[in-house]
């Protein structure tokens, strides 16, 4: 896609589902399996390789598989403020949209996992060459905007589309996603002011941040294990599929 390498699955059509993966990159956990699942549902899905590898990365992108981000977040912070920040990464996503517009794509949705939700929120804060009809983020990390000195709520006011959020954990507990993603939270309130009744949020209180892509995986840093987590992954993916269907109509 231009000079951005991508994993593409599905048949080229007039709509595009753009995945923005977590900090383990374009081959993180089960992200490609999820992409393939959405391709079988009729979507053209693309996962761009957008993060220069750190300590070798995963398949040449982002963090290596066993990188423990909970213990080593301090090592990632400089990257988030630099070559992994929105200023460096969003232009790569824009190039992907431009490439697929040339192939006949007329509208898109962005699905960001963890960190990818932050990048997707920046991407959808401006009108693009291909209209973005909605955004989705499983275990969103849009609060990273505050970590690097910005304001997530101000970014919400700039959104050009509604969003589905799937935050995790019990609010206030260690590792839980903050309440900004809940129905009465600051981000959802701003989004509802812009797109009333078109946003959705479901908190997966029993799951940990990262579970959709990295829960119950056997290789690499895992985000939860067991049959309950597998069932939650299935539920989350089905919820996303239903939301996308409603927004792509």
The gist of it:
The protein has 249 residues and is α/β, with parallel strands linked by helices. The protein has helices at 31-40, 69-80, 86-102, 115-123, 144-147, 152-156, 186-194, 211-214, 227-248; strands spanning 6-9, 15-20, 45-48, 107-113, 132-138, 163-166, 200-201.
Task: Describe the structure in your own words.
This protein has 249 residues and is of the alpha/beta class. Helix content is 37%, strand content 14%. The protein has helices at residues 31-40, 69-80, 86-102, 115-123, 144-147, 152-156, 186-194, 211-214, 227-248, and strands spanning 6-9, 15-20, 45-48, 107-113, 132-138, 163-166, 200-201. A seven-stranded mixed β-sheet has the order 1-3-2-4-5-6-7, sandwiched between helices. α3 crosses α4. The longest helix is centred in the C-terminal third of the chain and has 22 residues, at 227-248. The two termini are 26 Å apart.
Number of H/I helices: 9
Question: Any low-confidence stretches, pLDDT <50, length ≥5?
Answer: none
**What is the average per-residue confidence, as pLDDT, rounded to a whole number?**
95
Q: Roughly what fraction of the amino acids lie in strands?
A: 5-15%
- Widest sheet: strand ordering: 1-3-2-4-5-6-7
Oligomer: single chain
Structural class: alpha/beta
What radius of gyration results from the CA coordinates?
16 Å
The number of distinct β-strands equals 7
